[in-house]
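Subject: mismatched residue count in predicted assembly?

I count 380 residues in my input, but I want to confirm that the predicted structure covers every chain. Input:
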Amino acid sequence: MDLELSDTQALVQKTARDFASRVVAPQAAEIDEREKFPREILRGLADLGLMAINVPQELGGSGAGVVSAALALQEIARACASTAVMMSVTNMVGEAIARFGTDAQKQRHCPRLAGGEYATGSFALSEPDAGSDPGGMRTTARRDGGEWVIDGAKQWITGGSYAGVYIVWARTAGPETGARGISCFLVEGGANGLKVGRPEDKMGIRGSDTVPLEFDGVRVPAEALLGQENGGFKIAMMALDGGRIGISSQAIGIARAALAESVEYAKERKTFGVPIAQHQAIQWKLADMHTQIEAAHLLSMRAAALKEADQPFSREASISKLFASEMAVRVANEAVQIHGGYGYTREFAAERHLRDARVTMIYEGTSEIQRLVIARTVLS
Ligand SMILES: Cc1cc2nc3c(=O)[nH]c(=O)nc-3n(C[C@H](O)[C@H](O)[C@H](O)COP(=O)(O)OP(=O)(O)OC[C@H]3O[C@@H](n4cnc5c(N)ncnc54)[C@H](O)[C@@H]3O)c2cc1C
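Triage response: the counts match. Full output below for your records.
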């Protein structure tokens, strides 16, 4: 077992860390406060090859692998969780097209996602009445000559106001077919009949764009089908397994920021004549925060290494996502506590980290859904 990073992994990590501290971190509070979509930052990430890290180089990606992608996401999330989620989803969309797309689909979309011509790529699976249970989706696609016509609504679509391409899931067989009657389509930004709704007013990751989408007779050519007809659900599940490593990384990054700021504060803030870092109760908090972050990191590296080696990794991705997201909420909550009353104000980033961490327990499969996946393997 080798826990050392390869030269490529170390380089990607350092590149992301430098960009995060130099460019992203100084803007993070403003991005949150003003709900500002970080277009220039996403362009900068694309310039560094960080928007398609695990996409082959011949398609414009970095070809640096899954572990590199996880490490880079941790670094960006440590600076700004809003930016990180859009980076994560765009990477996921590029990977899915590179893996399941036809040559024409890959050539059209991967270089544009990788190079920043598309601000984001979006993953349009959830619906107003189908989140944890996407097999219950109602959006439909029907064949009309050489085209597909998509009708329905999607909900919570990250980066959806700015996406150059959306992966859209729709029912192509009757509702009785459940998950076996769903296909997957590539819909380009600005398609006729595609309406983007008002961004959600969220608790955290306020700089990330989250919108409902309406498909009103959106026509796409037959060649827009991604993968096999009625084979879309499998693509969604496989992409989500990978995406869960991304969300683990986001959670770890948020927790690292919360710990670093807590350490700094604990060394400066004095009570009873000494820095609070000298009180054992605070030291224990810091030790527990650090230990939990390290555990989450190792779990995420295991899932990433398995995926990179083309081994089954679904269970490991769920374990990693469940642990990292709940860990991030605990760690960010402790960070607020260590900051005392100041932690409850916007003067310090601790409250932002707590708000940002909370969503990691919800998207790309809630904690309850991760437990279902894990329990299935425990009981088998
Ligand atoms: C900020 C944000 C960004 C998002 N981005 C995207 C995106 O880009 N693309 C996309 O497709 N979706 C996205 N989502 C949607 C997200 O994946 C869903 O919100 C999530 O899967 C939960 O679905 P739901 O909200 O419909 O909750 P529900 O499915 O209604 O669940 C409600 C509660 O019931 C629990 N529950 C449900 N079923 C079970 C069960 N069988 N056993 C036990 N408990 C259960 C859930 O865990 C939850 O606690 C995003 C969501 C948010 C908040």
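The first strand starts at residue 120 and ends at 124. Marking this ticket as 'not a bug'.
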